[in-house]
Amino acid sequence: MAGDSVRFEDVLTQLEQKRQALEKKQTETDRLYQQREEDARKAREFRTQMERARDNARSRGEADARRILRDAKSAADQTMNELAELRRKQAQADAAQNLNEAQAAIRRGLNEAEEKLRSREFEPEPIPKPSRPIQKGDQVEIPGVKTPAEVVSVGKDGSLQLQAGRMKMTVKADEVRLIEEAQRKKSAPVRSNPDRQLLRPAATSELDIRGMESIEAESVVETFLSAAVMGRLETVTIIHGKGTGVLRKAVHELLRRNKAVKSFRLGVYGEGESGVTVVTMK
């Protein structure tokens, strides 16, 4: 009888131990589930914060936009670290898939915010209206190139034929800036070698056409390439963005037709990858 009593107590002890183990396992499961819910909530809040940051970036100044982007990146890194830790602890496959989707959504939001910020940084400089109609013999500049050229004739449609050294090109009057008489006297070129003076390379060799229509972009790129030839630039970069690829295709077709282009390629890592095209001039 004493032996039966001992065995019965052993059974009760084992049952109690199993019950405690199950409660501990249930507690751990509940904790992981609550942690997953909390991290998912943080991801949703961060997505909302990203959307709000993109909206604010459109109306705030450049400094505010950069600060918002920097804070967003910091929050993104922190959130992704927390999500990575949760993924390591979770044993279920569906939890890992949800975490991957959350990370992808965060990265998409960051890319969109960065794209918006770049668009603000590369807004083209407005062309001031001349004080008088441009005439034959005037000196003009193509915005973004700062290479002076002389107007050799004015067409009936208002188009201008320019010459810089041996190079000639035709542009619209609203695509160039008139060098006023006072400015010409202040920065008169040295006449000992005028061809060399006019063909001096510009300070910039980069053109941003993101947001333009294909037809508008083609005219701008043609003018940019003509200026690159006048400035004797060996390599130039055209920023067209990734997007749907329509603008990139239009630029590449134009480059194939342009006789001044030796070759071109998409950017590599660090240059902008498929969002830019690097052009080598002849």
Write a brief caption for the model.
By secondary structure, the chain is an alpha+beta fold. It has 7 helices and 9 strands, in the order H-H-H-E-E-E-E-E-H-H-E-H-E-H-E-E. Helix content is 55%, strand content 15%.
Report on the architecture of this protein.
The chain has a five-stranded antiparallel beta sheet, with helices on one face. A four-stranded mixed beta sheet has the order 6-7-9-8, with helices on one face. By secondary structure, the protein is of the alpha+beta class. About 6% of the residues have low confidence. Helix 2 runs antiparallel to helix 3. It has two domains: 120 residues, no CATH class; 143 residues, 2-Layer Sandwich (Ribosomal Protein S8, Chain: A, domain 1).
